[in-house]
Amino acid sequence: MNTPSVPTRRTFLATASAALAGPFVLSASASSAVRKRVLRIAHLTDVHVQPERNAAAGFAACLHHVQNQADKPDLILFGGDNIMDSFDQTRDRTRTQWDVWHRVLKSDCSLPHHSCIGNHDVWGWGPKSGARPEDMGFGKAWAVEELRLPGRYYSFTMAGWKFIALDSTYPNPTRHGYDGRLDEEQFEWLKAELKATAPTTPVLILSHIPILSACAYLDGHNEKTGDWIVPGSWMHLDTRKLTALFHQHGNVKVCLSGHIHLVDAVVYLGTSYYCNGAVCGAWWKGKNQQFAEGYALVDLYDDGTSTCEYVTYGWQAASG
User: Fold this and answer.
1) CA-CA distance, 169 to 209, in Å (whole number)?
2) Domain 37-312: CATH class, spelled out
3) For 207-227, how does the pLDDT look when each residue is reduced to its tens digit (9 = 90+)?
């Protein structure tokens, strides 16, 4: 386990920046000699809990691993795709999965937690669900209720940091059923939220789909055509718009995401983008490529810096 003063150990690290006037540091952990950690967060994304494949026991094991850390986190952030799938599932199947989610949380989680919505938490957009737009809970309404969210996007403050949870699943019936991007209403809300935040307050943004990621290029054979082709459902299509907004304000320090079930860290224009691996690994079937089932420990400091470490919890996938 890293101590806060040691640079983060990451299995995959990518850094990128644009030319800026004056010095620019490509390190999330670089700061003045004296800083104080104000929060330790456990980022658990892509749980994909379900009745099958011992997923409930795996989720519980992960929660126990988090809570048994010698340096215990203050907060859990769930990064979406909390249940296996409701996008293309019936109401009954969706209800069963949320019941498993609540049962495990009630019996095995004692830490405060917040969540964002993942694409698999959206009910009824897929044709196999049999759902209609007028059905109760259609779309994201059901997930908002089950996750006890104030809305599909929201903010809160803690220990001098502002947290913004975004809804990054945008409907696109012609391609996978969705894209990664913000709707205009949400983008205008985000602009107002950042404008109303003091420039000295560091901001952490939680989204399911990465706003900016290196490992999105490696999720599948995206180079098979002879060019790198990253689908719009794997990384935000409005990345330019969002990174420009973050740079304008200068205090968006951390963006956490999942979705890819791989691990990377990208630093761009002063914001650290941590895409973390899945609690379920390869959907409770073992490692996803080189990455085992796990979660991230994110340390936040009073000067706006951060560290992020991916931690595996020793889960053995069920055979068969």
Assistant:
1) 8
2) alpha beta
3) 999 999 999 999 989 999 999
